[in-house]
Each structure stands twice: as C-alpha cells, then as structure tokens.
C-alpha cells in the first residue's frame, strides 16, 4: 500500500517549506548572543540514511514508494547539496551503492570521502569533508619507523548512538566522572535556540526525536564536541561560555529539529514522500574554531 503524500502545515516560524524541494526544508537557528568572531567556521552534519539492506514493508508499512532507493537517494543527495555541510558523518550506507553512487556523487559535490564496513554487514559508515576547505594530513604509513608525537586536536564525535539521553551510553559521554543513574541535569545547546521542542521527555534540553518510525520514536543521534577533562566533577555545562572555554569552539547555529506537530496529521513513520527520505533526520551544527 502506498501512503499518500502528506500535506505539511505548521505555524512554527522556524519551519520553511519550498514547493520546488522534495523534502521539508528546515531553517538554521542562531544561538542567542553567540557573537561570532573571525575564527574559521565549520559545519558538521550527521545522517543515518537508512540502509536499503534493512528495508522491508513490514518494518515500514506506511512508507509506500518512499522506500525505493531510486526515490530516496535523490532526496538524500538533495538535502546534502542544499545544507552543504563541511564535514559529513554518514551511517547505514549500503556497500552495494558506495562505489557506484555515493562516492561519485560526493566527489561531484566537492567532498573527499572514506567508507568502512565490517565484513559481516551489508552497510557501513562514511566520513566526507569538503576538499576545498580541508586537507587530509594523516595517512596510513607502511613503515616500521617509530614516531613520537604530541598533538592537541579539535575533536567532534557524531553519529547514531542508539542511545537516548537517559541511557548509560549517552551519560558516559556527557558527564565526568561517569556515574550512571537516570535523568541527570545538564544544559545543552539545542534548548537555547528552540526551547519549545527541547527537554520534553528528558532533562538534558535535548530535542524530542531524531528517529521517527511507525513503531518507535525517539532521540538517538547526536553531535558531540570532545574536550579535555580536568578531573573535577563535571556533570553539568552551566553556559555556552563554559563550553567555549572547554572546547575552544563557539557554537553558532543548529539545524532546526521538527516537533511532533510538524510530522503531519497522520503521524506516519518515516520515510515519507515529500517529507524526509530516511527514518532518521539529519542533524547539523555550525561552529567557530578559536
């Protein structure tokens, strides 16, 4: 059964819809009082694109023709083209389509990409970056020479963690020292730019969902900035100033995440024609390096 194309209507001022697009375009929300400077600015996207190897009608009963790769891939690449992230972290990329479709298309869009899949799986992960903005300076060396190196990198961890804001995996990343218990308090960036859609089912000011299916809905995708731990009790980020001092990065903008009301009157699971091409929503952040 093919599900009807959903008509999207929302009074949310952050939502923009353009008839020419095959998906619901989302606005970038600026962080209040971010005060951007002259440092290099980078944008990072994480996107679980739904491996075609995992698709079946029983799992996605209302998605209709939106499940077909020929239809979905067109919209996925349209999103990537329009949002144009500098760094792109992809999950659930089919091995069967990487060399034939993904790699050539990403190169056409100006990206250098690396793909990895374990031998047991039919899908893997990829990291792509704009070669006009970055140069890969680290390569696998075929040598037995010993190098002693001391480095201090900007580090970003992004992807589908299959972990909600109150789960152990999430808490072990967002607090130090790790003390696993449920529903601890923390301030996150998304709550500052879209409070009406943050902290609704968690005390972390995180958005409500990034994965939306007929049988399950929730937040499991994240973009994290990794900073050094000074061995103090650090389970709460008090302000964006603290974040900036700890990470040497300034958070500037985040891609708006939809609310439940934005998902249409029927609340069909994704993917859906005219809405989103994966069961996950892409996430994106813009940062300034200090």
Automatic annotation (TrEMBL):
Entries under Gene3D superfamilies matching the protein: Endonuclease/exonuclease/phosphatase
Keyword set includes Heme: no
Q: Which domain of life is it from?
A: Eukaryota
One GO molecular-function annotation for this sequence?
3'-5'-RNA exonuclease activity
Alphabetical keyword list = Hydrolase
Residue ranges of the Endonuclease/exonuclease/phosphatase domain?
45-280
Keyword Hydrolase (UniProt) = yes
BP terms from Gene Ontology: nucleobase-containing compound metabolic process
Query: Family, per the entry?
Result: Belongs to the CCR4/nocturin family.
Q: What PANTHER family does this protein map onto? A: CARBON CATABOLITE REPRESSOR PROTEIN 4, NOCTURNIN
UniProt-recorded name of the protein: Endonuclease/exonuclease/phosphatase domain-containing protein
Taxonomic source organism: Metschnikowia pulcherrima
> Could you read off the lineage of the organism from its UniProt record?
Eukaryota, Fungi, Dikarya, Ascomycota, Saccharomycotina
């Amino acid at each position: 059964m093919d599900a009807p194309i959903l008509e999207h209507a929302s009074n949310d001022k952050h939502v923009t819809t353009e008839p020419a697009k095959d998906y619901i375009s989302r606005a970038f929300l600026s962080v209040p009082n971010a005060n951007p400077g002259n440092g290099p600015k980078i944008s990072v996207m994480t996107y679980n694109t739904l491996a075609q190897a995992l698709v079946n009608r029983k799992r996605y009963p209302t998605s209709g023709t939106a499940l077909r790769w020929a239809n979905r891939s067109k919209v996925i690449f349209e999103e990537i083209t329009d949002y144009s992230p500098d760094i792109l972290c992809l999950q659930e990329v089919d091995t069967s389509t990487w060399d034939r479709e993904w790699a050539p298309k990403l190169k056409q869009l100006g990206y250098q990409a690396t793909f990895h899949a374990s031998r047991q799986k039919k899908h893997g992960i990829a990291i792509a970056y704009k070669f006009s903005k970055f140069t890969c300076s680290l390569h696998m060396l075929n040598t037995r020479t010993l190098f002693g190196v001391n480095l201090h990198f900007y580090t970003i961890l992004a992807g589908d963690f299959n972990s909600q804001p109150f789960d152990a995996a999430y808490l072990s990343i967002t607090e130090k020292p790790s003390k696993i218990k449920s529903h601890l308090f923390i301030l996150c960036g998304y709550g500052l730019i879209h409070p009406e859609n943050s902290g609704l089912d968690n005390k972390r000011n995180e958005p409500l969902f990034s994965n939306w299916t007929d049988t399950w809905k929730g937040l499991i995708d994240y973009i994290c900035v990794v900073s050094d731990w000074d061995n103090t009790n650090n389970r709460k980020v008090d302000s964006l100033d603290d974040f900036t001092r700890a990470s040497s990065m300034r958070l500037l903008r985040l891609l708006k995440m939809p609310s439940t009301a934005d998902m249409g009157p029927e609340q069909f699971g994704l993917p859906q024609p005219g809405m989103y091409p994966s069961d996950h929503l892409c996430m994106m952040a813009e940062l300034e390096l200090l």
